[in-house]
Amino acid sequence: xxxxxxxxxxxxxxxxxxxxxxxxxxxxxxxxxxxxxxxxxxxxxxxxxxxxxxxxxxxxxxxxxxxxxxxxxxxxxxxxxxxxxxxxxxxxxxxxxxxxxxxxxxxxxxxxxxxxxxxxxxxxxxxxxxxxxxxxxxxxxxxxxxxxxxxxxxxxxxxxxxxxxxxxxxxxxxxxxxxxxxxxxxxxxxxxxxxxxxxxxxxxxxxxxxxxxxxxxxxxxxxxxxxxxxxxxxxxxxxxxxxxxxxxxxxxxxxxxxxxxxxxxxxxxxxxxxxxxxxxxxxxxxxxxxxxxxxxxxxxxxxxxxxxxxxxxxxxxxxxxxxxxxxxxxxxxxxxxxxxxxxxxxxxxxxxxxxxxxxxxxxxxxxxxxxxxxxxxxxxxxxxxxxxxxxxxxxxxxxxxxxxxxxxxxxxxxxxxxxxxxxxxxxxxxxxxxxxxxxxxxxxxxxxxxxxxxxxxxxxxxxxxxxxxxxxxxxxxxxxxxxxxxxxxxxxxxxxxxxxxxxxxxxxxxxxxxxxxxxxxxxxxxxxxxxxxxxxxxxxxxxxxxxxxxxxxxxxxxxxxxxxxxxxxxxxxx
Length: 574
What we know:
By secondary structure, this protein is an alpha/beta fold. The chain is built from 17 helices and 30 strands. It folds into four domains: 4-121 and 257-326, FAD/NAD(P)-binding domain (3-Layer(bba) Sandwich); 137-254, FAD/NAD(P)-binding domain; 340-461, FAD/NAD(P)-binding domain (3-Layer(bba) Sandwich), CATH 3.50.50; 467-565, Rhodanese-like domain (Oxidized Rhodanese, domain 1), CATH 3.40.250.
């Protein structure tokens, strides 16, 4: 059926839908509109362009066969009429027209449509503080700004950078400025951790330490109060509620919000959070108008609630589904689990599903297992430690989320990708126990990290493991006198345990090697709660089980073990 389709927004979801419609309905007229002159680019690659990993911005706009995705490309190769530098001003739903304006000439015209797709994306949050309009202050939301930022740095005009916002873009931009260019970088986050709402505190703290170890100053629980200018009118620093940070460049990465004003003014349903409301067919409250990408909310396949997921991977899927339905194929996009991964220097961090905080806020009886296994067979020469956090519901045994952090490579990605389909299917702990992952010593352990995390979750759920979480352990170590009835029991090799015994004394930190517990358990005091410590937690758990068999019940296992503690910013380690 021949029809006229207008697509507003040409970065991810819009081009995907436009091209899909032309493939399915070659006779239809498809018009792609965007207010920018750069279209269909990989926005998630901007930090890597600034860092120099991607040397030319055209690579972000190119296909895998090295054709630049510009107006000519879409018109000649895809058959899609393309209008760049053109802003959509208003939608007339009764007349089924869109009023657009050429930003160069000011000329306005009405475009008629049979079907309309809104792929207007998201817009950066600009903090309402003095100085945001100073030269040298940038949001990181389009390719033009990325080019300007890189140009300033490459010309040697920048020595110090302040990044506002510890989300993914903020962390990536902090790395980009530090890693290649060697700039002084400060990262300021208002909340108590980096990557809020994406990972839990334990994972975020490991990331924060890694950034600090690589020369990035990380300031948490600090709010930006004012951006300061110099006598020439250029930015000179950032003032927070605790300090003043010198800076020649301020990058504002305080989050994004859906760009939905066009939909709202047209009378379409918009959520309380500002996202366009769509059904599984990506259809808005007007059956002839669809929406996809960062401007919409989607359904969490874990909790069933709606959430905002500004991810390029999801935008492309949503665009395809919208294109299918516009072309008459009844496709559905059921939702997602927010699968996420990023790199920071030589570390990768990822997640899928709910954090512990989000799960509890949603009403689940949620708990976590924290593990720190080797990322491949322990005997393989290049093995290293990775840390995983599995969130689960004690009542139903359903797994609600998984997070991981470890060395750069495919290890964390593989586990997050393995967990995501199970989360979509509502899998329980037992399903995670039995998931089959490919095994070879250079790639993984025989008991995969996903399986190990779920085994610990099962032991916690069934009451076999009684644990102390890392945060509670650290609080105790900061103030041991708060729990005079607690005693650290270190079951590691004496060479590992002795420095701690020497530092804290045997009345606080007791060494009893794992392989001597069965012979020497009678030496343990009966009037103390034993906090059992090893590197990964497995020896501590086995010790706890044995001590219970011989009548010693007051024990706690340190979740994640010293592998996790050593990756946190802890000043009491020997």
